[in-house]
Amino acid sequence: xxxxxxxxxxxxxxxxxxxxxxxxxxxxxxxxxxxxxxxxxxxxxxxxxxxxxxxxxxxxxxxxxxxxxxxxxxxxxxxxxxxxxxxxxxxxxxxxxxxxxxxxxxxxxxxxx
Length: 113
Prior knowledge:
Elements: E1 11-15, E2 24-28, E3 31-36, H1 76-91, H2 103-112
Antiparallel strand pairs: 1-2, 2-3
């Protein structure tokens, strides 16, 4: 699926090594859009985690917002909630990085005065 230019979409993927089949599921805008069997365990490597890049080659063209990696395969209802409310509200936390005393925050305060 290729979205229209300037169209927001929610994309999520889950992997459950314990599932009998369809361990990998892909969701677009909260709806399961594909599934496949990928037997085997997730293995730790020395490679960095890359979001927005496929296999060290092609790059995603667009803006990625609210990227997260969980240590469990989320349920459909969890993905739906994240899509509708965002990660911050769903997880009940504040911003991942505090903006207090950061240059952009300080500059914004100076301009506001």
